[in-house]
Amino acid sequence: MQTISILGSTGSIGTQALQLVALHPDRFRVVAMTGHRNRELFFEQVRQFRPEMAGLTEPIPMEEIPADLRFCRWVMGKEALHVAAAEVPADMVLVSVVGIAGLQSVMDALQANRQVLLANKEALVTGGHLVMDAARRIGKPLLPVDSEHSAIFQCLQGAGPNKPERLILTASGGPFRTWEPKDIMLATKEQALKHPNWSMGRKITIDSASMMNKALEVIEARWLFDMPAEKIDVLIHPQSVIHSMVEFEDGAVMAQLGTPDMRLPILYAMSWPERLATGGARLDFAAMKALTFEQPDLTRFPGLGLAYEALKAGGTMSAILNGANEIAVDAFLHDRIRFGQIAQLVEETMHAVPVVYHATLDQVFESDRMARAKAQELLKTSRFAV
Ligand code: NDP
Ligand code: MG
User: Fold this and answer.
1) Is 174 in the pocket of ligand 1 (CB under 6 A)?
2) Helix crossing, 202-210 with 317-333: angle to 10°?
3) Taking the model in full, what pTM does it have?
4) Whose CA is nearest to atom 32 of ligand 1?
């Protein structure tokens, strides 16, 4: 029996993780969980999973907690993340909150010597050097949940002492893969929120449509697998069957395949190094028509190029990219900019905010704050009027 704290239990990843706990009640027990705004769902989850600690990062008065749920310790506000990550004893901490809030939580969990299961991308994108240093110090691998990184991690389990020569991150290409750039510029929210293969939270779904998601994943991979940017390729693979690949010195390529179902990478991180049943569908090779591949088109998806630019610049440039992108996605979802302006706003912010090298955690947060402020300022200029 292993105990798990789930940060962001009400999200797409969080709810699937809870389904997996329910599927394997003899293997996992939830000891702490946090939600943010979706308090009705969160209450239901607490009722079902009966953790020792529960918290809402968007605080509510204690009187609003249903009487039958007062059996556990309740913590409100940001403190909830800290308590769930580092105070409640747990064998593992799943960080599945969205946004830069994940960085502090990952650092807290690592400093408390916890095994971290990492869904949140922003932690590695913004504070990769700090997170990897902290993970090395405790000597436990950071177990990736993101499907591409899980695929690479799974491939490397069979690689022995051999270091990969190249990582190949696959990408579905999202809903606009074949659209003309002028049409992508004007894409609506409804079109951008309709992902062809994966069902995910709103932020990451928009990022998938702009391929900014793949940009963030390139940066994640750089840190997680200690690979220079020029050895990380992105390959469009619209069927999302191959979840990523690793190439070795002798030219051998290892890949991990499966249906597009996040339960597999989530459960693999939870049960590693073992594999457990997910309850998901199996691949049917005979029913598959073709697996196809294409080079990503940077004129359609300029956001992807910005990842390489950020890694080349180094320092806090990736945090600046991430902060600006969070503002840009939010502005798009609130009809303040056009879809095609997301990457434009990110790029302009990257060129306007000073980069800090060898940043401390506080300096990363400061770069993030400056990027958000600059992006907000740029949004007010006439170039970004809808
Ligand atoms: P969702 O938007 O579905 O869920 C986000 C979770 O974080 C919810 O529990 C939400 O609470 C909570 N939350 C929102 N804002 C805050 C905040 N400011 N502080 C603390 N908690 C907050 O996102 P996903 O589950 O899709 O994604 C979570 C992370 O995992 C992201 O970083 C994403 O990039 C990454 N990821 C997701 C994948 C997926 O398939 N969904 C795949 C790979 C990576 P509430 O809903 O109660 O407001
Ligand atoms: Mg992914």
Assistant:
1) no
2) 110
3) 0.97
4) 120
